[in-house]
Amino acid sequence: MAVTKTYKLYVGGAFPRSESGRTYPVTGGPRGSIRANVAQGSRKDARDAVVAARKAFGGWAKATAYNRGQVLYRIAEIMEGRRAQFVDVLGGRPADRDAVDAAIDRWVHYAGWTDKLAQVFGSANPVAGPFFSFSTPEPTGVVAAVAPAGDPLLGLVSVLAPIITSGNACVLLASRDAPLAAITLAEVLATSDVPGGVVNILTGDPLEMAPHLAAHGDVNALDLTGTDPADRVALEEAAAGTVKRVYSPGPQDFRRPPGTARLRAFLEIKTVWHPTGAVSLAGGGGY
Q: Would residue 101 count as lying in a domain?
């Protein structure tokens, strides 16, 4: 007799149980049987994930673009090695094989972006004076994101990858009804050189946890891709209390070929100036 596996959350590079001890069944096995039991995250779990993300953010943001690219490419390599498992988790259909291949390709795509952000989003600004002015992109900080419910792997990767490409840390709420792809991806992240806490994946009901993340003072931005348009107004109002950056795309935005909008959504542009000539060796200023 097969033993039904109970999956846990992914927080701070570890796999803890929900603090409430709650789980819920995921069906879809033979004759509608239970495929697995999944941890049901709570408000406390969301807070713990934010603490882990904030702790990891500084080191990830300061990592070189080359290093971040290597880490993202390693995720693609490990996913390729576990391709059959991901296909099985999604259902084993031909369309699922295509989705897994597309998700792997998307990691490779964003791995190539890590060392190009400064060139594309930065600039050297013309000024009238004896100094240089530069605008450079910097990560926003801790981003809370809701993964699309209808595309549990490619949609999830399309949301997550651009967030961490630019040096942000992420708290990701997985699809409630199809969380197994997200949990399997967490196992990949845990073995692919991603520092613990850079990505935190919570399973359960996003509507239970999202409002607390939207109002959390240590969350810098929200990605509402996987939320129902009817729920977005309340989340945006909660986010306004702490002046969060909010990305609220169309419902099928993640299905389009990746562009620059998601990369730009969680970047801050910092402008600095440096005096010209020998004085520049002594330092500069910024605003």
A: yes
